[in-house]
Amino acid sequence: MTEPHVIDRSQHRLLVVNDDPVGRYTTVRLLNAAGFPTLEAASGAEALRAAEQRPSAVVLDIHLPDIDGFELCRRLRAQASTFRLPVIHLTAAYLTDEDKVRGLDAGADAYLTHPVEPAVLVSTIQALVRTREAEEAMRRSEAKFRAVYAQAPIGICLMKAGDGTLLEANPAMLALLAPGVEDGEAVVGRLLTDFVPDEDLAAARAFISMLGSEGARAEFPLRSNAGGVVPVEWTASPPIEPGICMAMASDISQRQLLARQRQELLDRERAARGEAERLSRMKDDLIAVLSHELRTPLNAIMGWTHVLQRHSPPELLVKGLAAIDRNVSIQARMITDILDMSRLNIGKLPLMRERIEAGAVLREAVAVVQHTLDESGHRLALDLRDEATLLLADGGRLQQVIWNLLGNAAKFSPRGSTITLTLRAADGGVCVEVRDEGQGIAPEFLPHVFDRFSQSDAASSRQHGGLGLGLAIVKSLVEAHGGWVDVRSEGRGRGAAIRFWLPGADNAPPDVDTGPGALSVFGALGDTGTGTGDGPAIVLPGLRVLVVDDDVDAGAMLKLILSERGAQVTVVHGADEALLALAGNAFDLLISDIGMPGRDGYDLLRDIRGLEQPGERLPAIALTAFSRDVDRQQALQAGFDAHLAKPLKPPLLMRLVAQITGAAVG
After folding, report:
1. Is the pLDDT of residue 155 over 50?
2. What does the pLDDT look like over 309-328, one tens digit per residue?
3. Rounded to the nearest 5°, which phi and psi values hold at 585?
4. Beta-strand pair 38-41/57-60
5. Which of the residue ranges 69-83, 98-112, 128-142, 526-540 would you say has the lowest mean pLDDT?
6. Is 339:646 a contact under the CB 8 Å cutoff?
């Protein structure tokens, strides 16, 4: 590695000027041996021409045929291109001190006489070339600095570290200190604090006090000619020489304006977000209240219809009750669809996933709607070839998908036709298809099948009821599981097939809750259906049940339904009454409403759990018109063993009571 004080001689060509061929040859050989390339000249005129090739130095004899070496040196110094060219006089004839003085006065950098030691000549040349390189580098650096200094968009000044006296200012700094003044001398010698508003002098003096350290930063303004102030950010370097620092100043008016605008935008965004969140909460509350208020009367209608149907009514009454039951179920389904669609739109319909067999989910879904399909005169053909395939899915929501697809197929198919449900393993998951023999779908409507509120017939001439949300919910639920759904139809009168694909358990999206939890039980049971059959007989002989509901009709209905199965039922209409009943009696099961005046069902259960002794635990079912998933989760987290949404299907209640209490199933 080359040392810093040693130059690369091969890069520095030297001009040797001597009219004596022998002397010139000797000098050239010496320099070539030392590693320098050379040019040669035998006269002053030749030397001036050779100097145009920009040698790094000149080794110059005094005695020349046309002009002497002193004059040649003066001419080299007179030309801009050779003004800084190092010149070394090397002579055997001009040996006096007076000659040396003449040579140095003429501009020579060194004066050597023969005989000269080769090392002395080489070292002298090397030192002069190295010094000239350093000077040239410094000159270029100074030129670059001056260019930047003059054109920089930020203010730059030199000032004394002690008191902030200004020594020099570039045009940008002059524009900040004295707008409109072009002569930089107008500010030289003045203190920086002369240009600072009185209220900001403390900040300016603190900045000046730090100038002798490793550097300083500050923000304080300068006065403007208009009587205002200009906000300025200041940065100072460590001293560039003793007692003198360089400071830079930037006008930050635009930055502060942008910061204020940004803050205003952030404030408006926060306010808008806060308002949106407030409206979202109001919407959630409205959905909850709407659900409660719509489901509560339906609960009484559906429950009493079921009770009357069990008591062998006359044929006309049987028809009327069946009609009431069907329409209440349709109404409940529409309410559920509206609320589900609303929650899907705002991303608040969580999925409770677990590892389940695809075929088991489909069979449970079919069991719920089979009675309705039978009543409507449709045959259901099942082809569940790969039913053992595992999914990581919300079983309840997948059943809802199947209910909607089968219900949709039945709605648009004639009595006596066949609906086919198939299940196949495909592409690392399962593909489920529901095919019907119904009226089919027109080609122009196919792209809109999964749109919300879409119906293929005009509103004024619709042949089929419903809100047009069922298939939109199907699409949202399937895609939420990481799957896809599509529809095919060969046109009007040719039937339709809707299929969906879901990833298998090993290919399901990773960011899911895989705990089965208590909710999975209700996914299997479901809280929606249109059948009226009771299923296997369930008896509750001697089961002591406490029913808590502020709705008198609902309490009476539940008492009758449970009593018919052999249960001993006590009905109260508030939390305080329930605690009094529990204080004097033993019960095997609590069925409680959630939304009640004063203290709600959560308050009641909290008090009950607080009074229980170690080893005691009263099973509890929440039976409520608050039907959102968040309501279901909240009930389970509060300590209820189960959650059922109104309007109630009595067979579901019986099955759940049997499951929780171990009652006999006949």
Report:
1. yes
2. 666 667 767 666 666 776 66
3. -145, 155
4. unpaired
5. 526-540
6. no
**pLDDT recorded at residue 421:** 94
Spatial separation of the C-alpha atoms in residues 40 and 660, rounded to whole Å: 115
Mutual angle of helices 395-411 and 470-480, in 10-degree steps? 150
pLDDT, residue 467, reads 56
The CA distances from residue 66 to 44, 45, 72, 101, in Å, are: 6, 8, 10, 22
Give CB contacts under 8 A, 24+ apart, made by 295-299: 295/332, 295/335, 295/625, 295/627, 295/645, 295/646, 295/647, 296/551, 296/554, 296/625, 296/646, 298/328, 298/331, 298/332, 298/335, 298/646, 298/647, 299/551, 299/554, 299/557, 299/625, 299/646, 299/647, 299/648
- DSSP-derived letter for residue 414 is -
DSSP letter at 648?
Answer: P
Contact criterion met (CB below 8 Å) for 506 and 346: no
Phi, psi (deg, nearest 5) at residue 74: -65, -40
350, pLDDT greater than 60? yes
Tabulate helix, strand, coil % of the chain (nearest 5). Answer: 45, 20, 35
The strand ranges marked E within 445-561 are 484-488, 496-503, 538-539, 544-548
**Joined tokens for residue 536:** 């296997």
In a 3-state reduction of DSSP, which class is residue 371? helix
- What's the CATH code, domain 262-347+522-666? 3.40.50.2300
CATH class, 353-516 region: alpha beta
pLDDT of residue 177: 84
Q: Using CA atoms, how far apart are residues 609 and 579, in angstroms rounded to an integer?
A: 11
What pTM did the predictor assign? 0.41
| Residues in CB range of 50: below 8 A, 6 or more apart | 15, 17, 39, 40, 41
d(CA 107, CA 83): 9
Please report, for residues 158, 297, 319, 406, the alpha-carbon distance to residue 498 in angstroms, rounded to integers and kept in the order given: 81, 35, 34, 10
The radius of gyration of the chain from alpha carbons, rounded to an integer in Å, stands at 49
- Domain borders along the chain are 9-148, 152-251, 262-347+522-666, 353-516
Cα separation, 59 vs 20, in Å, equals: 13
Q: Average per-residue pLDDT in the chain? A: 83
CATH class given for the domain over 152-251: alpha beta
